Amino acid sequence: MKRLYILLALIPLIFACQKEDAYTGLRPDERLSEAMQKYENLLKDAPYGWKGHLYTQEGGGYGFLFNFDGSNRVEMLADISNESTHISKESSYRLKAALLPSLYFDTYSYIHLLADPDPDVFGGKPAWGYYSDFEFSILKSSADSILMRGNLNGSKLLLVKASQEESNAYKAGNLQTLKSGTIDFLSTNRFPYIMTKTGDLVALNFNMRTKKLTLTYDSAQQVQNKSVGFAFSGLNYLELESPIRYGGTQINRFSLDKASSFLVGLDGAKETQLFSSSTPLFSFNQMLGVQFDYILIPFEENVPGSGSDFNSRRTAALNQLQTMLAAGSKFPYLAVRFDKKEKTMLLTLVIQQGNESYVANYSFYYTIENEKYRFVYEKAVDGNANYVFEAMIPLLQGFVNGDFNFDYQVVNNELMGYGQSASNPNFKFLGTLE
Known about the structure:
By secondary structure, this protein is of the alpha+beta class. Helix content is 24%, strand content 43%. The strands form 3 sheets. It has a 9-stranded antiparallel beta sheet, with helices on one face. An 8-stranded antiparallel β-barrel has the order 1-2-3-4-5-6-7-8. An 8-stranded antiparallel barrel has the order 18-19-20-21-22-23-24-25. The termini are far apart. InterPro entries: DUF4302. Pfam families: DUF4302.
C-alpha cells in the first residue's frame, strides 16, 4: 500500500517532464511574428516587383505592377485607366496579424479606386464600388507567388514575381499597349469565336468596360453564357481568373500578337485559334445583355434605314426640346437599354449644355414571346424626364403600339441594331450596339 502511494505521487512529475520535453517549438505569438517577417521579406525581395491580378466580386479583372520597398511604401501601375498605365502611384502598406496574416494598402491609390463607394469617383456602384478590396488575407505563398482574398468583399488578388523584362515593359507603358492592341483586335474582329475540338462554336465577348470575357454557346439547343474576369499582364497576356473549358478545349490565358493585334488562346503551349464573324453567331435577343447592352440612336439626325413615323416623332420632340431648353442645348443620342432580369426597358435621352451632360430616363415594362417585345409605359424616372415629358410624348407613344421586332442590320458596312413596330412598320429606329 505504501508503494502504491509513492507511485501515485510520481505520476504528476512524470507527466510534467513529458509535457516539458514535448514542447520544443515556438510560442504562437513567436510563430506569428516569424510568419509576418517571412511575408515582409517575400514582398520586398522581388527586385523587379510583382505582377498583380485582381479579380473583383463583380466579375472584372485588373492588372497591376507592385513594387514593395520593405519600409511600408509600395509603388503601383494598373490597367484601370489610361493614366494608371504609365503614371506610377505610391501608397503606404502594412502587414497585420489578423485572423490570417493580412496585407493592407493604407493610403489612397489605384487599388482603392475599384472599391470607392462614390460612383462619381470611378463609376462603381453606390456604397460598394466594384466590390473590390484594399485589405487582403494571405491564403498561401511560394517563392514566386502569393494568393490573397479580400477581407470585405472576398475579391481575389494573385501576386506573381515579375522578370526584369516584364518590369521594364510595365514602366514603359506596356499595359496601355496591351489595352490598345486588344481594342484594335476587337474593332476588326467584332464577333470573335472559337471552334472546339468537338466542332462546337463558342462566341467570345471581351468587354473592355467591365473587364469580363463572356462565352456564349449552344448547349442542348439552349444558349448558355459564362463570364470570367481578365487582367492585362506581363509582356502580352490577358490572364483569366479561371480557365475556360468547353467541348474538349481549354484556355487559361490569351496572348496578344502586338504586331498584328491578334489574340490567341493558350493552354500552356497549346494554341486555340480565334475566328471572326461579320455578324453575331446568335440572335439579337440571345446576345442582348451579353455582346451588347443597348442601342444608341442619334437624336439630331435621320439614320439611313429608319422609319418615317419614327423620324417625324423624333423631329417633333427635338423641335419642342430646343424651344424649352437653353439655347445651344444638344441632344446627341437616345439610348434604348434592356434589363432582362427585371423585364424593363429604359429610354434615356442625353442632353448636353456646354460642358455638362444630363439624362432624362423613361421606364417601360415589357413582355416577350417568340422574340417579339410588347412595352407598357411605367413612368418618368427623374426630374429631368418630368421636365421635358411634354416634348417626349409623341416618341413615348410610339413604343406602346403593338409588338416590336428587334434584329441586326448592316448600314454602310456597320452592324447596327434596330427595333420596329409590327403594327406600324414606319416606326423603326436604328442605332449602334454598345
